[in-house]
Amino acid sequence: MKIRYFDHAATTPVDEKVLKAMLPYFTCEYGNASSLYTIGRQSKKAIDEARKKVASAIGARQHEIYFTSCGSESDNLAIKGVAYSYKEKGKHIITSKIEHPAVLNSCKTLERQGFEVTYLDVDEKGFVSIEQLINSIKSTTILISIMFANNEIGTIQPIEKIGNIAKQKGILFHTDSVQAIGNVKIDVNRLHIDLLSMSAHKFYGPKGVGALYVKEGVEFEKIQDGGHQERDKRAGTENVAEIVGLGEAIAEIYQNYEKYNRKLIELRDYYISEVQKRIPNTKLNGDTKERLPGNANISFPKINAQELLLELDEKGICASAGSACSSGEASPSHVLTAIGLSPDIARGSLRVTFGKDNTKEDVDYLINSLEEIIQQN
Ligand SMILES: *Cc1c(COP(=O)(O)O)cnc(C)c1O
Asked: Are strands 210-214 and 4-5 parallel, antiparallel or unpaired?
């Protein structure tokens, strides 16, 4: 059966060009980047090239990019790293209720270690309130961590405003941009971002490699001891092939930014309008304008999305209920709860996330399948 994949927020397939760029570093170019002989130096050069590509994609400088093993590690390193470095200055952190577990659970760990965390509410569209943010700031606040775009409902936060406030108050600003990279144009200086997390497998790169941008002058403690790789901030022999993959993937996606963006928005808006036309009493979650181009999260009445997923799977369709990390849990997702959905409506929410290789024919198949399954219920 043909697989129709609509779960690009969970992960994406590796782009052909990206894979091709990576392959030599598994076989002939296997040198350790710390070794001084030729094949070692070639690995180091490949890492430097990738670092340049990542930096240039977000308006950063090369020495501000640190490679990690995933988006989750980047979030941990940013939040815990800053907290441990600036704890003499203060122990208060501000984040939101709809962050990814990598951020939320890093904050929970810090709370157990004596830090204080404010979890901002969001409105029914998923936006944090700027007013509540300002009112939460104390003299001890050292870090604001707000995600760029939400992985479940696609809401894009007013990042420039938040960055401005952080800058004015002399507070560091971290943003989990794992979902935004490739989908939104990002300039870390214009947006006043001090730390930014990304993960290659969300933009057609390989799984198991991420990056963290840290603005020059911002301190952060390493959280893994070992060798002096990544300017002594992230120990462990560099994963050369995957780092090359991340660099290639970010360059490739931003080279095609306009084309992909237009396509995703077209598929998304077509899907949303057809579903609303053909299936009664649906509810679109998230905002209509400030929304990731490929994200459609819709609640279907009297539907259990977990069961719906199984029926879609039988038709070769991959989609998601809540986020990949929380699906399988019985309780509705923390994001859908935070935007005020009742547990019943939340349980009927289906997240569809489009990708660059989806076609209109795929989307028609999805809509027809949904209509058929829901009519039978
Ligand atoms: C996927 C995701 C992560 C985690 O990235 P991994 O590389 O899978 O660890 C973090 N934050 C957001 C918003 C994500 O969507």
From this structure: unpaired
> Pairing state of beta strands 210-214 and 172-176?
unpaired
Asked about 325 being catalytic, the answer comes back as yes
Region label for 305, one of left (φ > 0), alpha (ψ between -120 and 50) or beta (otherwise)? alpha
**Among 186, 196, 160, 156, which residue's Cα sits nearest to residue 292?**
156
Q: Which of 133, 197, 127 is nearest to 164 (CA)?
A: 133
The closest-lying atom of ligand 1 relative to the alpha carbon of residue 11 is: 1
User: What distance in Å separates the CA atoms of residue 165 and residue 80, rounded to the nearest whole number?
Assistant: 22
Compute the distance from residue 11 Cα to the ligand 1 centre, in Å.
9
CA 307–ligand 1 middle distance (angstroms): 25
Residues with a CB atom less than 6 Å from ligand 1: 70-72, 100, 102, 147, 151, 176, 178-179, 199, 201-202, 210
pLDDT band at 330 (very low <50, low <70, confident <90, very high): low
Tell me the per-residue pLDDT of 128-159, one tens digit each, with 9 for 90 and over.
Answer: 999 999 999 999 999 999 999 999 999 999 99
Find the 102 Cα to ligand 1 centroid distance in Å: 7
Q: What is the pLDDT of residues 159-187, one digit of tens each?
A: 999 999 999 999 999 999 999 999 999 99
